[in-house]
Amino acid sequence: MAYIVDLRSDTVTKPTESMKHAMVNSALGDDVYKEDPTVNALESKVANLLGKQAALFVPSGTMANLIAIMVHCNKRGSEAIVGNCSHIYKYEQGGAAHVAGVLLSTIQNKPDGTFDLKELESRIRGTDIHEPITSLVAIENTHNYCGGKVLPLEWIDNLSELCKKHSIPLHMDGARLLNASTYLELPPDRIVKGCDSVSLCFSKSLSAPVGSALVGSYHFIQQARRVRKMLGGGMRQAGVLAAACAVALDEVAPALALDHRRAKVMAEVIHGLFLKSFSVDVASQHTNMVLVRIAERSPLSSDQVLQRLAQVSLAETQGDCKTTNDEGVIVKAIGFNEKTIRITLHREIQDEDLWLAIMKITYVFKELDAAHPIKS
Ligand SMILES: Cc1ncc(COP(=O)(O)O)c(C=O)c1O
């Protein structure tokens, strides 16, 4: 038996004891009739937190983003401009096209999750009848594929001005908005001030079992409520879920800085190994994710490294790479591509697990670096 440290995602966390207590004890009603007091309270709480008029509780981040796209792009022939590394483009099955008939046009993301605003402006369509209608710009904060990067506030503000100038709504996929707010030490309403709609997930770094919110104006949320029903996201006694989400905001969000600190420690240790095959950009490690780059000229692939992290060798348990109970350690992470591994810290990784993971990663990276030298 091996001891597993699961660093694949902050979605693997289970509800806390106080979430379970709230789930069992909260008042319930039929939310499709807007009669679930716990859902209603959560929606008001999130709308307040983000400084918007209204919010809608939905099952997932994917549905929140899709509803936002469908409401903003409600004319046939619409296009939404999104980053080429955005979750909406890469990981939501092209739902905008699939379900809503909306063209997703991509703009190149920079490594910090932003994109060039001049290029964006040049991409906004005019009145030429050959072209689709630019109806939405969407950004992501924190940016998952860029390693949990926090978008610079000034850039968001400038983008928002640009969108206003062209009367195009701005949506933020804020699945991990509260990580951004923790990093910037700014309230979330400040960060999303210039956005017309925002999605926020309770089941990522916040540890709730299920649920996201979509936030915007009264009118936007009224339309979103209709679309949610059409997509099958109208839930009945959804207060059992919303109760956990409220606890996530009250009790888990204030501790996010701990995940960030642990991620920084992980990044610094890997960087400090000074290995040729593996590197981490410590300065751009902002929140709870660490991106490990495998050198381009290394023969190693992400899959190979992940497979090795998931194995325990005899030498590890005969040596010091083990728990105090003499168990070998397995670290789970995910590969973003052939040469990039993402490690994610979350509430269930306390200091003991952090150090076990660091011990194992150090052992495996040194072993692989020595066994697979960089090609000259
Ligand atoms: C940035 C971002 N947006 C949206 C989603 C989708 O959320 P869900 O898995 O709840 O559909 C994710 C999921 O990891 C994400 O990282």
Short description:
The protein is built from 15 helices and 13 strands.
Bound molecules: pyridoxal-5'-phosphate
Task: Figure out the total of helices.
Answer: 15
Number of domains: 2
CATH class categorisation of the largest domain: Alpha Beta
Give the overall average pLDDT.
97
How far from one another are the termini?
40 Å
| CATH architecture term of the largest domain | 3-Layer(aba) Sandwich
Q: What structural class do helix, strand and pairing data support? A: alpha/beta
Helix content: 40-55%
Strand order of the largest sheet: 2-8-7-6-5-3-4
Order of helices and strands: EHHEHEHHEHEHEHHEEHHHEEHHEEEH
CATH H level, superfamily name of the largest domain: Type I PLP-dependent aspartate aminotransferase-like (Major domain)
Q: In this structure, how is the largest beta sheet organized? A: 7 strands, mixed
Radius of gyration: 22 Å
Cofactor: pyridoxal 5'-phosphate
Domain Aromatic amino acid beta-eliminating lyase/threonine aldolase: 6-294
Family: Belongs to the threonine aldolase family.
Modified residues (N6-(pyridoxal phosphate)lysine): 204
Structural summary, described in words:
The protein has 376 residues and is of the alpha/beta class. The protein has 2 domains: 2-10 and 255-371, Aspartate Aminotransferase, domain 1; 17-252, 3-Layer(aba) Sandwich (Aspartate Aminotransferase, domain 2), CATH 3.40.640. Helix content is 40%, strand content 18%. It has 15 helices and 13 strands. The chain has helices at 17-25, 37-49, 61-72, 87-90, 95-98, 117-123, 153-165, 177-184, 188-191, 218-230, 239-252, 256-272, 302-309, 314-318, 351-371, and strands spanning 2-6, 54-58, 78-83, 103-107, 133-140, 170-174, 197-201, 212-216, 278-279, 289-294, 328-332, 334-337, 340-344. The strands form 3 sheets. A 7-stranded mixed β-sheet has the order 2-8-7-6-5-3-4, sandwiched between helices. The chain has a 4-stranded antiparallel β-sheet with strand order 9-10-13-12. The longest helix is centred in the last third of the chain and has 21 residues, at 351-371. It is globular, with a radius of gyration of 22 Å. The model has no long low-confidence stretch (mean pLDDT 97). The structure holds pyridoxal-5'-phosphate (PLP). Residues 60-62, 87, 140, 144, 173, 175, 201, 203, 212 line the site of pyridoxal-5'-phosphate. The modification N6-(pyridoxal phosphate)lysine is found at residue 204.
